[in-house]
Amino acid sequence: MSPARNPVIDCAGRSTRDINRDIRASLGPGRRVKVRNPAARHNLGVALLSPGAVGFEGSVGYYCGGMNDGATVTVNGSAGWGVAEGMLSGTVEVAGNAGNGAAASIRGGLVVVKGDCAARAGVSMKGGLLLIGGDAGYMTAFMMQRGTIVIVGNAGHALADSMYEGVVYVGGEIESLGNDAVVKAPSRSDRQAIAAALEEHHIPVPKRLKKVVSGRKLWNFEHAELETWRAAL
Amino acid sequence: MCGIAGYLDKRTASAPVGNVLLGMLEALGKRGPDSAGLALMGPTPDSREVCWICLPEDRDLESAVDVALDLVKSVARVRDHRVSGGMVRLEIARQCDVVEFCRRVEDPRHGLEIVSLGKNLELVKQVGSPRNLAHALDVRRFKGSHGIGHTRLSTESKVDLSHSQPFWARGVPDLATVHNGHITNYHRLRRIYEQKGVRFFTENDSEVIGVYLADQMSAGRSLEEAMVRSLQDLDGSFTYLVATPDLLGYARDPFALKPLITVETDGYVAIANEEVAIRAALGTDGVAHEPSGNVHRIWSRARQAALA
What we know:
By secondary structure, chain A is α/β, with parallel strands linked by helices. In chain A, 13% of the residues lie in helices and 24% in strands. Chain A is elongated, with a radius of gyration of 18 Å.
């Protein structure tokens, strides 16, 4: 018997391992898996390695969509710490807010948080795109290495601290920049690309955008930059 | 780790807060099963105060209770007393100030520790998981407006009743705290407070938070002002909650190192380390939100009533 095309998985009373095994077995190109009663439990929908859609009908806990490689995960609620952590490809979309470390260390794919992100969103990002519809907290984009983050609302203190590469766009106010983070004016093509990405996910496009990039002063140690290093370490 | 939870009912002062907070703690129990406790704000039927006292473990219960009663009767009228899980709960009319009351009752020769004092505050705790707390004490039926709870994973100090949380902010009636994290300048702060004459009863770094708040308030600051200053003066990782008869609040360290989730609806405010606790106890209402670091917030029951 082939698995149902649009299976429904109920989390109530079942172990995380069983639920994830069911999600993986049900997933495949063109499939839409519904997951009921996630009740903010941790580690749901991790390491999904094939295409297909998984929809959580409620909040999820830590690491939902972590290590994702190709699946489209939607969360109709909020997400806890480390949503989509270590993702390679695919999409993770959160209708509500996300906790600390959203999209931490992702190498590719798309993470959309319609609401706010707490501290350290996009920490150590190595590729991919993170769209934040609301505000982003302390040390967003800390030690980012590649990829793009868009914050439609305000950014907290120490934005993009010690970033190597990559780009952060901010629609609202920046509470403070981190070490070696530099504000630049975005180009017309930057603005067009960001607007297109936001519109595709029904996020209002901010009137103005600031672009934050690495000043590259921390790439190599220079004695002349001693004060910068002192501040960064 | 440790699990912390807070709940405030905006609509009634006779909400099942004990049951709600126990439900939250049970869902958080995996964050630490060493001990569990609740600080609950109940109604004030008259002018009496409630005092919970932790009895010494090295003597038999009956004689320990007798000693406690004798000591309390030297500084207060005792209207009622009840023994409950290693502690005794007394209803009293105090005849001296709080400092003198504590000094007399906590005479080092007898090994008693005042766990809480206040008109509304009921503070119960015990070694073991939150589930044990439900068995030992009748908190499931407790009605009140709000409260805070804790389930402990001990990392630096011993596991016994005295080291369990919540902690009363010694010296300030009706103020209790719970904490998740580590206060890394604990020893420095403790030394300063001990030089001021404060007595510490545990080696648990979380105890210093209540001492800090009480010290700040004795200098004329409001609880909220003290919480704001604590963000700079306490070092390390911390999310802590406070409860007074009017307030429920949180404060979180500048690096946002310990988790903190809030859900606010028209009916209630719920706070926990993990959303899973709020969903387990209260269902799917409301949007979970995690604040960033270096933040505090308080909810006032009086303000809620004024808005309603």
